[in-house]
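Notebook B, p. 112. Complex prediction, attempt 2.
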Amino acid sequence: MRRTGATSTGLPVLGLPMLGLPVLGLPVLGLPVLCLLVLGLLVLGPLTCAGAHAASPPRAAILASLCGEGTRAVLGGLGETLAATPDESASEARWAQRVLQAFSGHALQCAPGDQAFLSDGDRTLDAVTLQPARAPDDSHAPLPSLRARVALAQTQAALALVAARDPAERLAAARTLADHAGGLPPGLPAAALAREHDPRVAAALRVLVAEAGLHAPQVGLRLAAIAALRQDASSATAQRLAALRADTAYVRDPRIATALDRALAHVRFWLRVGDGLALLYNGVSAGSVLFMSAVGLAIIFGLMGVINLAQGEFIMLGAYVTYCVQEALRLVAPAWLDWYPLLAIPVVFTVTGAAGMVIERVVICHLYRRPLMTLLATWAISLLLTNLVRVIFGTQNLRFQTPWYLTGGVRVVGDFLITTNHLFAIAFAVAAFVASLALLRLTPLGLFIRATTQNRGMAGCVGIATRRIDMAAFGFGAGLAGLAGLALSPIYNVNPTMGTGFIIDSFMVVVLGGVGSLLGTALAALGIGLVDVGIEPFYGAVAAKVIALLLIIVLIQWRPQGLIAARGRR
Amino acid sequence: MRRAFDPIALTCASLLVLLLVLLPALGLSGALPIYGVNLLGQILCFALLAMSVDLMWGGAGVLSLGHGLFFAFGGYLCAMHLLRTAYAATHTLPDFLQFMGASGFPRWWGFADSALLTLLAVLLLPALLAFLFGYVSFRSRVNGVYFSIITQALTYSAMLLMFRNDTGFGGNNGMTGFHAVAGLPAGSLRAAVLLATLSAATVLLVLIGGRLVLASRFGRLLAAIRDDEPRLRFLGYDTLWLKLAAWCASAALAAVAGMLYVPQVGIINPGLLDPSVSLEVAVWVAIGGRGGLCGAILGAALINVLQFWLASAAPTLWPFVLSLLVLLVVLVLPNGLLDLRNRSRAWMDELAQPLPARLRGRSAR
């Protein structure tokens, strides 16, 4: 509704004086003025409906001023001509885009007698008609100055806003205009907004409109602009408003000062809310990573009393298997490449799980009565795995293709951005939690694992093959760690030593959560993740780690069995 | 341990006595290059560190994966003393203090001017830290792998702390630029010989003293803790204080090792606090053999010599050799290389039997 209104009434009012003012009244600086001219043409073009298609006069005039001949006079006479030029298909805008592109690329050739040519590859085109032509030998290619280039970028963005069919291109153009807002004709963003259908581009344009309105001479327009600006509670807005508030000339009118104060308070409040939510989100994301790496450790430790120091290396292995799946898809089925994180899930689980089972069978099962020795043995395994991978793949970080659904994010409140790659990790952790819980609660294997965890001797007596359960559980734990590596691959640096940092954090989670309790592990991982992320901005990452460790040592004093203790006799 | 000195311990001690005599003679005459003297001294410090771990692990069954913390603690204290003496001689501040914009040493560094006070600090401060940590852990009956991993976490957080530049101990560059060691210019042959001989003497002293302690009533109680702590508690012993005593002594020993180590390498940085360093010390002990302190010396010497040799011959091979060695020892020789004699006798006996009997025996197991 509002948009149609702006189209019919507001635009000609805004557009017409703008054309006249800079071109005729102000000292002219050649190219910037030309740019304004082009902008004016484009703003008005689609809206003025009368008149025949007469492309040549403005085209020739634009080219003439680009070639730098008689800038002021030519431009001065051009205003009215342009205003009368209709352009319903934006073909003029596309033509101008092309010419300006050639101009900035040093491919516009000017010849005497107001002739201009475009070099297009090895062809030469007449700049007005875009038909093949021969440029005279004495033509020269003018080079835009550095100062002109800024205006050129602005004009090109404005042209793209009018002419580009792809919303992403228009969005990029709107952002470029927001970066170079100074000297923008006030009518342009509003005109573009009136024509815009894409909500994201429209939102960006509304900011531009407000920005233009901030410098409008009327107080009412300024107040409206401030009100529009405060809708977008970002730190950039806060900075902008604060800068205006500090400008004594600007806030001479008390109404503007109060409006600015209110808007600043509003924006800052929502920024704070956004920061709080971002902290929560990062904490949950860190916690889900911790959970993924700790859950296997917790199951294995609860069942066998064994700390698997190679758990971090299973995570690393999972990330490398993911990489192998990606490379295999690239070779075999490039069309499916974007789906490698999902396709890799069964592969990663199987491969790392099998590796875990083999290691259990070959090494760990001989050491059940000597848990301290398993520490050394699993450390040796981690050393072996790290160096095997290092020899095979090299030490550099792996390069992962980021699929389209794992890029970017959605801005929610203030500067709080829900990034999809972290969301992926969180969703993965939740899925892993549910799957593990289902396995432990609903399947016979889970029943056996729980029975063996609670009382190994009794479980053996009633006929459970406890050693085989150990192997299965070890494989399951290793498989979960591998999946953690898969979930981490879009977030972390994947290299052979990536696993070393995990074991201590994961063990802290297990100690805090209580041995053999899945729910405890999840709660502890979330808690530690939140504490880590919460302390970090105030005291730094190191202090966060140290404080978390001290908290855990204190906690062991009054709850040695962890937050949620597994039932059973030990 | 019944007897303080069995043949292996006697051999070990006499080898050390021999080393104690030969080191100054060979070193000062130039028969052994300064590099060799230095290397020997470092290995002796590692042996000392391994013995401190073995005292707890072999003696009381408590495996520490964080002795690098006490080792580095002693090392940092020693480096502070060396920096103070260097400052007294040259009047230039260490680089890391200059980078931080300090005009002088922090006031509390004053104690490091005195060698005696530094030695006292090395003996007491790490033991105090060990006491605090050990008290809260042993009191809540944290033991086994739990305790091991928490010591590892403690070392890890200390490493993170020391890697920061604003902690005030040189950050990741650590402390270096020592001028003189006990009046001898740092890096000179005589300083190297002195330090290596001192290390050998300390190892010998600790070996004799440690064996005596382990064979005493206290040592037997420790062994009882290792074998069955709840039963000892039922019998009325307060195992908390027994373990704490051994734990603090072990920490002080590790600190002494660090104190002797730092002037020999001429630098200390937080790399020593890396959990994998502490884990490797436990690996030396496991490979050498636990319980008698001789195995610790053997393991530390063997692994370090092997590492030194392979580091130049085939650097990529070393981690594979080490990990396979650990797996081999853990699986085949549960009590380390010193177990080789008993084990080989058992294998010989088994091999001496005819094949059908061996197969029957295996299936019955």
